[in-house]
Amino acid sequence: MNDAKDKRITLAIDKITADLAINPRAGGLTRKVVTEYAERLAAGDDFPDMVVYKDGKTYWLSEGFHRHAGYQEAGILEAEVIVRDGDRDDAEWNAIGSNKSHGLKRTNEDKRKAVAMALKLRPKWSNRQIADHAGVG
Fold first, then answer.
1. Rounded to whole angstroms, what are the CA distances from 92 to 8, 60, 68?
2. Degrees (nearest 5) of the Cα angle 84, 88, 91?
């Protein structure tokens, strides 16, 4: 967990709002990866907890879009998640900085999309700050 305020809970998959506009993947979800994750989840493999931001009523998915889709495809109704306080923008900001060193390798298009998203959310930040957060050179 990232912060003292992070909470780990079991949450119903259908309570998680997976807004694909938050996902910094240029191509959206990769079907092959979703199917692989679904098969592995159905076989009982463990995956890292997804990360969601809760704004009082909505759980915004921030990390784990492929895992979330894999849970759905496998028919698994709930999962362990890390819950952080925050709104949709907080979830998007965190998503921009995720997958820099783990998970499905990011493409150059993914990196460009992450930078564009970061510039929209933090227009006054320097190029270096944006690049550092998005994990690009």
1. 20, 9, 16
2. 50
Which token pair is 81? 């998640």
Residue-by-residue DSSP string for 22-66: T---TT---HHHHHHHHHHHHTT---PPEEEEESSS-EEEEE-HH
Distances (CA, A) of 101 to 5, 74, 128: 24, 26, 18
pLDDT digits (tens, 9 = 90+) for 14-68: 999 999 999 998 888 999 999 999 999 999 999 999 999 999 999 999 999 999 9
pTM of the model: 0.89
Q: Which residues contact 85 (CB under 8 A, 6 or more apart)?
A: 5, 53, 54
Calculate the CA 56 to chain-centre distance: 19
- What six digits make up the tokens of 128? 């270096």
